[in-house]
Amino acid sequence: MFRASQQARKAAQLFEDLSGFSVLQKRKRKTMTKPWQRPPALLVLEDGTVFRGRVFASAHQERVLGEVVFNTAMTGYQEVLTDPSYKGQIVTMTYPLTGTYGINDEDMESARIQVEAFLVKEYQDFPSNWRSRRSLAEFLESQGVLGLEGIDTRRLTRHIRVVGAMRGIIATDTDNVRELLDEVRAFPGLVGVDMVHKVSCASPYRWEKGPQGDATWNDDHSGFRVAALDFGVKYNILRNLERCGCQVLVFPASTPAEEILATNPDGIFLSNGPGDPAAVTYGIETVRKLLGHKPLFGICLGHQLLGLALGGRTYKLKFGHRGANQPVKDLRTGRVEVTSQNHGFCVDLESMKHVPVRPTHINLNDNTLEGMEHLEIPAYSVQYHPEAAPGPHDATYLFDRFVELMRRDKGVPASKDSHNRHS
C-alpha cells in the first residue's frame, strides 16, 4: 500500500513537472479574478451597434480604436495576435473558448503582439499544455493590449458578415455611447492608410533560425540567396524559406530596388503585411523596378503589391478572409487546398486583363483571385498563407516552387541539388 501511494505521488509530480500545472495553479491563485469581478467595457461600432463585455487583460487601457474583424480558426490565437497583418485591427475569435493552452515561446509570428485589442466569448484562465509558459492574460498584460471576454462573438460575427468590417471603439472609462460613437466615426480606419511603416523592420537583418544582427550573406551557406522585403513578414514564412535551404536577408519595406539588387540575390520575396495596399506607394514602385531582374514570389500584401505594380487595381472585401479553413482551387491541377488566410483587400482580376498574367488559384467561397503568375517573367504570387501558422500545410509546396524557379533561372540542372547556389 505504501509503495503504491509513493508511486501515485511520483506520477502526480511528474505530471506537474511536465505540464507546468502546479506552477500555473499557484500563480493563478494569486492573480485570477472571477469573470463577474472584472471591469466592464463597451464595444461600439460605427453603425451604433453596442456590445458589452468584461476586461480580462490590460484594464488600464481606457480606449482602443481599430477595424473590427473576425477570425474563424479554432486554434492558433498566439499566431493571430502576433501576425503583423492584423496591425490596426480589433480581432474577435469565433471559437468560443480561448486561452486553454496558454502562450509558448515557439509560436511567435513577430517580436510582439500586433492586434489593437482581442475579443473572446470565454477566457480560460487555467492553461494546460506542456509548452505553455504564461497565460493569455499575462501575455496581453505584458504588452499593454486590451483583452475582453463575455462579448457575444456569434452576434458580432454575424453582424460583420451582413454589414461588413467596420470601425469600432472599446471603452472602459465610460458608458456614454453617443460620445464613443462620435469618436469612432472620426477615426479614419484603414482605407487609404499606410500601415506597413508601423510593422516593417527598421534595418536589414539576416534570418538564421531567427533574426540575426548581421545583414550580409553567409559565404559558407550554399543555399539560394533570397532578399525578402518586409511589409510585415511572419516568422513562419522565413522559417519555410530556411527549410527549403535558402539563406534570407530581410530588408525594410522602404528599401530602394537598386539597394536590394546590389546584394545580388537569387530571388526576391514580397511579404505579407497590414492595411490598404494602394497606400503603400513606395512598395509598389520598388516592386515595379524589381520585376524581371530576379525570380519573384509574393504572399498576401506582396501579392497585392505585385498586382498594383503590374497595372492592376485592388479593392476592399466586405468582411475579408480570416481563418484557417478557406477553400482554394488550383486552376492548373483542379486540386482544392484548405488554406490559412488573413486579408481585407483583393486584386481585381478584371483589371489585370491587359497584363500578361494568368490566374492560378481562386477562392471557392466567393471566386476572388487567390493566385497569379506572369507569363513572360519569373514572377508569381498567392493571396493566402502557404506558411500557415496557424492552419493546414496544404500549400507549402509553393516555397519549393520558388526554389525551383531560382534553380531554373540560374541554369542549375534539375538532377543536382536544387537548394545549392553553387552547383
Beta-strand content: 25-35%
Report the strand count: 20
Largest sheet: 11 strands, mixed
Strands of the largest sheet, in order across it? 11-10-13-12-14-15-20-19-18-16-17
CATH architecture of the largest domain: 3-Layer(aba) Sandwich
Corresponding CATH superfamily of the largest domain: Class I glutamine amidotransferase (GATase) domain
Q: Give the overall form.
A: globular
Number of domains: 2
Backbone CA Rg: 23 Å
Q: Structural class, judged by helices and strands?
A: alpha/beta
- The level of helicity is 25-40%
CATH C-level class of the largest domain is Alpha Beta
Mean pLDDT: 91
Number of helices: 11
Instruction: Kindly identify the CATH topology of the largest domain.
Output: Rossmann fold
Describe the structure.
The chain starts with a helix and ends in a 13-residue tail after the last helix. The model is unreliable at 14-30 and 415-423 (pLDDT under 50). Helix 9 packs across helix 10 (301-309). It is built from 11 helices and 20 strands. The protein has an 11-stranded mixed sheet with strand order 11-10-13-12-14-15-20-19-18-16-17, with helices on both faces. It has a 7-stranded mixed β-barrel with strand order 1-2-8-6-4-3-9. The protein has 423 residues and is an alpha/beta fold. The longest helix is centred in the N-terminal third of the chain and has 18 residues, at 2-19. It is globular. It folds into 2 domains: 16-186, 3-Layer(bba) Sandwich (Glucose Oxidase, domain 1), CATH 3.50.30.20; 196-410, Class I glutamine amidotransferase (GATase) domain (Rossmann fold), CATH 3.40.50.880. Helix content is 26%, strand content 27%. 48% of the residues are buried.
